[in-house]
């Protein structure tokens, strides 16, 4: 029987990891029902990162299974989550399960959860069986996720301390696997290793399971051997929030938003962050560590832009925290040309008018025109280390992972 099981909010700032809970549960499912029980790879589903009560990355997980006894699976899931969830701080774990088909309301809730704040009652009315607390929201969203475009991530887990992988080794790994693995390194900063107290040793993102396994083998050959690992199908690096997410015309706190307008002002704060305002009145901010994105916005007063990011309250206003920008052009002021011959006009002095340099005609009134210069048109991303999980890198083929199933590749150990 087809069963879709979602889990969320089992980690905390002090440790734990929801993907590790899914890994342990997947191992138990393998023991009881074998590899044929898996209809797909375990799923890692990123949701709206602007939610104030998230723990860290705001990710939920899901398993798509074919098992003979959904009730036994449910009891197993509750047992594993109860044993591994860290009930501290904001952590409030939840489980959701749908038998047969995924409810349409769960699919809608996924679209909402990508970009908006979703209520617990909405998750409870989505047509799935649920257990637990606020984590039910992400759990329902995970089983409703649309992963027709996806990427993979091989997540390796550790026992004991996390040995630091040197940038030179990651650079060599990327040279041998790019573009089928990506987002591994930002200059000398290693991006595949987290820095928190969670059990993740490293995570390699890619487009095919085979390249991920090859990358793992390269690291293992240099002594970086994990205690266990699994390959997840994920909506990371797919722009799922732009393709599927619900984005309102009006700004709402803690939602994802796209603002269009002319940058009326922009300046650096004492901390070197960039703050500014659009001609619509919406204030925005760009952290200094966004690198080229913050620099471009600082220099772009008068530009017509689209700004993408999350809305958060700050100093009594709702600020857009910019994550990427599309600069369409800069408005420049030009003097009207001669209506008779098209020649340029030169000033004859204050109050004396303008004279055409070509035909000599004198005008006592000359209009000032604002023209959009599209020469600086550019799509700007922050430095790779500051990319959000859902941001799609340029030229990434997110349909390639559709060709792979867990039946034709090793995906867990």
TrEMBL record:
Q: List, for all copies, the residue spans of the domain called TiaS-like TCKD.
A: 4-65
Subcellular localization, as worded in the UniProt entry: Cytoplasm
Q: Does the keyword ATP-binding apply?
A: yes
Q: According to its UniProt record, where is this protein mainly located?
A: cytoplasm
GO-annotated molecular function: ATP binding; ligase activity, forming carbon-nitrogen bonds
Pfam families in the record: TiaS_FLD, TiaS_TCKD, Zn_ribbon_TiaS
> Any idea where the TiaS FLD domain is?
133-241
Q: Which UniProt keywords apply?
A: ATP-binding, Cytoplasm, Ligase, Nucleotide-binding, tRNA processing
- Report if keyword Nucleotide-binding is assigned: yes
Catalytic activity of the protein: cytidine(34) in tRNA(Ile2) + agmatine + ATP + H2O = 2-agmatinylcytidine(34) in tRNA(Ile2) + AMP + 2 phosphate + 2 H(+)
Q: Name one GO biological process term.
A: tRNA wobble cytosine modification
Q: Domain named TiaS C-terminal zinc ribbon: which ranges? A: 337-364
Which Gene Ontology cellular-component terms appear in the entry? cytoplasm
User: Gene3D superfamilies, per this entry?
Assistant: 2.40.50.1010, 3.30.70.2200, 3.90.600.20
The enzyme's main class, written as a single word, is: ligase
Q: What does this protein do?
A: ATP-dependent agmatine transferase that catalyzes the formation of 2-agmatinylcytidine (agm2C) at the wobble position (C34) of tRNA(Ile2), converting the codon specificity from AUG to AUA.
Q: Which family does it belong to?
A: Belongs to the TiaS family.
Q: Which HAMAP family match?
A: tRNA_Ile2_agm2C_synt (MF_01892)
The record, for PANTHER family, names: TRNA(ILE2) 2-AGMATINYLCYTIDINE SYNTHETASE TIAS
Q: What is this protein called?
A: tRNA(Ile2) 2-agmatinylcytidine synthetase TiaS
State which gene encodes it: tiaS
């Amino acid at each position: 029987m087809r069963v879709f099981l979602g889990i969320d909010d089992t980690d905390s700032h002090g440790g734990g990891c929801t993907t590790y809970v899914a890994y342990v549960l997947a191992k138990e499912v393998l023991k009881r029902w074998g590899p044929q029980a898996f209809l797909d790879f375990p799923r890692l589903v990123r949701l709206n990162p602007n939610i104030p009560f998230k723990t860290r990355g705001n990710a939920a997980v899901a398993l798509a299974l074919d098992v003979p006894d959904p009730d036994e699976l449910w009891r197993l899931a509750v047992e594993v989550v109860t044993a591994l969830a860290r009930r501290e701080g904001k952590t409030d774990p939840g489980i959701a399960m749908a038998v047969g088909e995924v409810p349409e309301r769960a699919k809608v809730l996924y679209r909402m959860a990508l970009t908006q704040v979703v209520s617990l009652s909405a998750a409870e009315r989505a047509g799935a069986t649920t257990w637990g607390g606020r984590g039910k929201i992400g759990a329902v969203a995970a089983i409703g996720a649309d992963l027709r475009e996806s990427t993979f991530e091989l997540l390796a887990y550790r026992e004991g301390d996390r040995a630091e992988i040197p940038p030179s080794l990651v650079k060599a790994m990327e040279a041998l696997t790019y573009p089928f693995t990506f987002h591994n390194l930002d200059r000398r900063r290693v991006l595949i290793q987290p820095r928190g107290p969670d059990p993740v040793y490293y995570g390699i993102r890619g487009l095919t399971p085979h390249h991920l396994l090859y990358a793992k083998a390269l690291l293992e050959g240099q002594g970086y051997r994990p205690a266990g690992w699994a390959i997840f199908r994920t909506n990371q690096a797919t722009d799922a929030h732009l393709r599927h997410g619900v984005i309102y015309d009006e700004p709402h706190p803690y939602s994802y938003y796209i603002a269009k307008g002319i940058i009326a002002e922009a300046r650096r704060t004492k901390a070197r962050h960039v703050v500014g305002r659009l001609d619509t009145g919406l204030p925005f901010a760009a952290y200094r560590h966004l690198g080229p994105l913050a620099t471009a916005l600082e220099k772009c007063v008068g530009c017509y832009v689209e700004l993408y990011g999350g809305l958060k309250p700050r100093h009594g206003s709702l600020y857009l925290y910019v994550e990427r920008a599309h600069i369409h052009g800069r408005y420049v002021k030009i003097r009207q040309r001669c209506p008779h011959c098209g020649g340029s006009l030169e000033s004859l002095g204050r109050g004396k008018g303008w004279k055409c340099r070509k035909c000599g005609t004198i005008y006592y009134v000359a209009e000032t025109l604002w023209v959009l210069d599209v020469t600086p048109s550019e799509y700007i991303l922050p430095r790779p280390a500051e990319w959000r999980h859902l941001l799609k890198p340029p030229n990434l083929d997110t349909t390639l992972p559709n060709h792979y199933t867990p039946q034709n590749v090793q995906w867990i150990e």
